[in-house]
Amino acid sequence: MTMMFAEASSVALPILLVSPEACEDALADLPKAQAEWAAFHGFKGSLGQTLVLPGDGLAGVLIGTGSASDRARKRFAIGAAIAALPEATYSLEHLPEGQGEEIALGYLLSLYRFDRYRSQTKPKARLVAPEGIDADRLQLIAQSEALTRDLINTPAEEMGPDALEAAVRNLADEFGATVTTVEGEALLDQNFPLIHTVGRAAAKAPRLIEMTWGSEGPTLTLVGKGVCFDTGGLNLKPGASMGIMKKDMGGSANVLGLARMIMASDMAVRLRVLIPAVENNVAGNSFRPGDIFTARNGLTVEINNTDAEGRLVLADALAYASESPPDLLICMATLTGAARVAVGPDIAPFFTDDDALAAALSAASATVADPCWRLPFHEAYEPMIEPGIADLDNAPAGGMAGSITAALFLRRFAPVPRFAHFDIYGWQRTNAPARPKGGVGQGIRALFNALPEVLSE
């Protein structure tokens, strides 16, 4: 999907961004006919308000910026308003300080359409890259976000473990990366028992997908949950909860989007991506509540809910990643409903013991309008994941602190100096500026922005 800026053009129509506070002065500076036109149409500079100005044909466009509070509540609204303009080439004038990249990225992200199954009307407005921004960087970010969205939006019938592997191989071919997989019964032979356990009841074989890229720089390992569909297993989800479970591979989709950003920008890093790809299905050989399994690192895990399967497949992948400890290990997963209760669907909560990493992620989150929030590895809750009969419990009773206990569970498999776990939603429930209903990237733009600083420490 093309998500690009237009070539510079001498016939580009100027866009004048106008705040409510400056609206009266801005209109007074227009030619009289245009000022009267704007007044007649009630232009006040409210967020996303647009007005095409008449002249010899079209003379330009006014777009309202609203207040700072408006923009915080509805990020990307200005870029989305640009994308919705009539077909023409446009250029931005007098960009508000510090807003240029968000506006330009909002325009690019607004060009996204998921048209695999139905033709979609695409925006026809073309925007010349504003001065002072890194256009190439924004374009690669938008293209990578599109990959993440496409992967999540594709139904499980066509995005099972085999198709997810094919998507990884396509990405690797684009950037000269290497891919290996361990599949089916070979998972047992090579000591990935939990990945095999979760995926063994599905028609499409479970697998661990590994991609490597880069030969110099610090080591970075990304682990993404690849549960391509989650029925809940024998602890079967109700139909209403199963409806969007194609998104349960959103962690893998996000790490692949981030990996694409890293490779497309030629970041000096030795990158490794691990995706345990499974379907959690129901059959005669489904794993059961009460079963106990030994993970790759030797810890035993009691199964108290087969619908808490994501942490199981991630456990083996994280243990494997930690056998060659990277400089930074990042895990992303659509893991718990508790995280949504805590921070809602729009914020990507993350866990880390590294204060410098947390500070860098929080700062990047604000800079690139990619909301993230740190939650604690609260040590006092460790006993909640220790059932007594086994080393660990995959689903502690009581329902308290579900996101934290899941993060503590994962940390048992990631004994490395620098580790961060993101418990994301990966789904836009309703249409929003630059974010149509469906799959969405969360946390990956903040990570991409923070990585150079974090990996240099």
TrEMBL record:
Tell me the ranges covered by the Cytosol aminopeptidase domain, including all copies. 305-312
Q: Which UniProt keywords apply?
A: Aminopeptidase, Hydrolase, Manganese, Protease
A Gene Ontology molecular function term of the record: manganese ion binding
**Keyword RNA-binding assigned:** no
Instruction: Extract one GO BP annotation from the record.
Output: proteolysis
Q: Pfam families this protein is in?
A: Peptidase_M17, Peptidase_M17_N_1
GO CC terms of this entry: cytoplasm
Q: Which PANTHER family match?
A: LEUCINE AMINOPEPTIDASE-RELATED, PEPTIDASE B
Sequence similarity: Belongs to the peptidase M17 family.
Name of the protein described by the UniProt record: Leucyl aminopeptidase family protein
Identify the species of origin: Gymnodinialimonas ceratoperidinii
